[in-house]
Amino acid sequence: MPALSLREVMSIGGYNAFLQTTLPPEHRIYDPDTETLESSMATFLTAFPRGFTIEVLDVYSGPPKIAFKFRHWGYMEGPFMGHPPHGQRVEFFGVCIFHVDEEMKVEKTEYFYERGNFLASFLSPPAANGAAASGSSGCPVMRGN
Asked: Where are the transmembrane segments (predicted)?
């Protein structure tokens, strides 16, 4: 996806900026191209009435390039785009790099994350923690093959 300026992000909203996709519209669970700043805020505030937290899990490097791992999460206690709430935690993980100047002001940010599994988790509750280890994984290493 092309980089967005701060002005562009502020114009379309953070959710729409972070959920940009090249998927065809008919395959999108959430379509940032048709949502506005206001509608995206309403959608996520409704789905996460207690909030949608960003948690820094690990910091890998210091200034001027601050790299860290994060988790963005909340409990889906409200409907999302016509899908009923399931009350389970919905989350995604990523890595961010802040480029800062001498005064520690952020000049540039880079985010690396996978949005597909996050959006799919709105359709049904996430699998129990033991499900991946039970052999249902498509990964031959996880299956023990």
From this structure: none
Residue holding tokens 């940032």?
Answer: 32
Architecture of domain 6-125: Roll (3.10)
For residues 60-82, average pLDDT: 96
Q: Which of 77, 76, 58 is nearest to 68 (CA)?
A: 58
The residues pairing with 17 across neighbouring beta strands, listed in sequence order, are none
CA 31, CA 87: separation in Å to the nearest integer?
A: 23
Q: Is 115 helix (H, G, I), strand (E, B) or coil?
A: helix
- Give the mean pLDDT of 104-122: 90
What's the whole-model pTM score? Answer: 0.76
Q: Where are the domains of the chain?
A: 6-125
| String of DSSP letters for 61-91 | --TTEEEEEEEEEEE--S-BTTBPP---EEE
